[in-house]
């Protein structure tokens, strides 16, 4: 099923920033739904993503956006949920395997209603039939997954769920392909909600060059955070190291204290030196989240450097998406709120920003706010950005801040 996106080059606007003005182009506005999923590229320059934080199956899709010579983009809906045991409420986006098939995970749907890992098979006819590879059982195997999937070199899949497991606080899981298209689940860690963390929410897991796996948990740890009118824990960053015999050793590499960040929901990213970078939704001096760097030491410990503390208002508030690098070592990301007070019905929270952090010779970083969203059609960017070869940035906006439909947008650099 093909349809031409309604809002293309005509929906182009220049927005005030603290740096040079950037141009934002809306590539696609969804009809009655939104996207909280990361975008990915294929080798031909097409973008892929998901829609569906909704319970109407007709709004739950996997889509492709293809660029046209005149600067417009064409949307091709590859798959639409039919409800029932098919995936429902797809949040994290999709990933490719080596054969060009797409894989994703859903929060609801599946045999037990608690989500499923699924595959869309790319057939020569152009169709993309869907298959549930694994159905979460709402208990020991996990429940309500909102974090994305990650492949290892052997073709095994890895992910997290924020609920289920032995303690109800979520799990890290591995799916291993078997004969006849079956997949077997191995639980690598059951979160307790204590010092190890709990409720691993949005982020994808990432591998280092040695095959160790890294991720974050939104709660738990050792820090005490005065949020939501009370006191809660601030979350952790963890490492899973494979052992002989197929087991994995779990280690907390950092516990947030609140002043250095809290509630990490963004995907982590490595630099060439093995340092880890990420964002938090809360915490920092001003309570609006931070961008941080974790530095590995020879003794196995990790040191933290806070690169930027969001101040709210024009500076942004609430980073749900992580950060990405350009070739010069600059970092780019979004906040879901802040930036501009003129944001429709919920004007105090702001519509969100796109920012750049530029490293300085003394180790500090300078922030430039590239875009302050002003409301429809773009508001509430929740996910990671992607970059093209020219340095242009692409992302999705939920529309939550203005109770409108979501969009795919481009920031032209």
Across the major sheet, the strand order is 1-7-6-5-4
Query: How large, in whole angstroms, is the Cα Rg?
Result: 20 Å
- Tell me the span between the first and last alpha carbons: 32 Å
Based on the structure given, which CATH architecture is correct? Answer: 6 Propeller
Helix count from the secondary structure assignment: 0
Main β-sheet description: 5 strands, antiparallel
Question: Which consecutive residue ranges, at least 5 long each, have pLDDT under 50?
Answer: 1-20
- What's the shape? globular
Level-1 CATH class name: Mainly Beta
Structural class: mainly beta
CATH topology: Neuraminidase
Number of structurally distinct domains: 1
Proportion of strand residues: 35-45%
Residue share in helix: under 10%
Rounded mean pLDDT is: 89
Per DSSP E runs of 2 or more residues, the count of β-strands stands at: 32
List the helices and strands and how they pair.
Blueprint: E1 2-4, E2 12-15, E3 22-29, E4 40-41, E5 47-51, E6 61-67, E7 73-80, E8 95-96, E9 102-105, E10 116-120, E11 130-135, E12 150-151, E13 157-161, E14 171-177, E15 183-190, E16 206-207, E17 213-217, E18 224-225, E19 232-233, E20 236-242, E21 248-255, E22 269-270, E23 276-279, E24 290-296, E25 302-309, E26 324-325, E27 331-335, E28 353-359, E29 365-372, E30 386-387, E31 393-397, E32 407-412
Antiparallel strand pairs: 1-7, 2-3, 3-32, 4-5, 5-6, 6-7, 8-9, 9-10, 10-11, 12-13, 13-14, 14-15, 16-17, 17-20, 18-19, 20-21, 22-23, 23-24, 24-25, 26-27, 27-28, 28-29, 30-31, 31-32
């Amino acid at each position: 099923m093909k349809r031409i996106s309604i809002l293309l080059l005509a929906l182009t606007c220049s927005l005030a920033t603290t740096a040079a003005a950037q141009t934002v182009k809306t590539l696609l506005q969804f009809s009655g739904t939104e996207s909280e999923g990361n975008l990915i590229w294929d080798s031909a320059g097409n973008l892929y993503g998901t829609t569906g934080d909704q319970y109407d199956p007709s709004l739950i899709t996997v889509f492709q956006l293809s660029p046209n010579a005149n600067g417009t983009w064409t949307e091709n809906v590859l798959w639409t949920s039919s409800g029932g045991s098919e995936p429902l409420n797809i949040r994290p986006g999709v990933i490719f395997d080596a054969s060009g098939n797409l894989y994703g995970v859903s929060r609801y749907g599946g045999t037990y209603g608690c989500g499923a890992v699924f595959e869309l098979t790319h057939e020569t006819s152009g169709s993309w039939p869907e298959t549930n590879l694994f159905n979460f059982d709402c208990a020991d195997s996990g429940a309500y997954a909102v974090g994305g999937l990650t492949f290892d070199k052997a073709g095994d899949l890895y992910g997290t769920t924020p609920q289920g497991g032995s303690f109800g606080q979520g799990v890290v899981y591995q799916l291993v392909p078997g004969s006849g298209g079956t997949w077997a689940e191995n639980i690598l860690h059951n979160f307790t909600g204590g010092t190890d963390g709990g409720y691993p929410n949005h982020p994808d897991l990432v591998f280092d060059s040695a095959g160790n796996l890294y991720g974050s948990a939104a709660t738990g740890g050792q820090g005490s955070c005065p949020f939501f009118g009370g006191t809660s824990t601030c979350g952790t960053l963890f490492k899973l190291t494979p052992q002989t015999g197929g087991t994995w050793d779990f280690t907390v590499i950092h516990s947030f204290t609140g002043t250095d960040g809290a509630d990490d929901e963004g995907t982590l990213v490595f630099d060439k030196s093995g340092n880890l970078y990420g964002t938090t939704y809360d915490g920092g001096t001003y309570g609006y989240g931070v961008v941080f760097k974790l530095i590995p030491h020879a003794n196995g410990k990790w040191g933290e450097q806070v690169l930027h503390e969001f101040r709210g208002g024009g500076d942004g508030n609430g980073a749900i998406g992580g950060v990405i690098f350009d070739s010069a070592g600059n970092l780019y990301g979004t906040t879901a709120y802040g930036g501009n007070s003129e944001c429709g019905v919920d004007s105090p929270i702001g519509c969100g920003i796109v920012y750049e952090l530029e490293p300085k010779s003394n180790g500090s970083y300078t922030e430039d706010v590239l875009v302050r969203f002003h409301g429809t059609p773009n508001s509430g960017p929740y996910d990671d950005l992607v970059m093209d070869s020219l340095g242009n940035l692409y992302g999705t906006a939920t529309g939550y801040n203005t109770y409108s439909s979501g969009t795919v947008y481009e920031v032209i650099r």
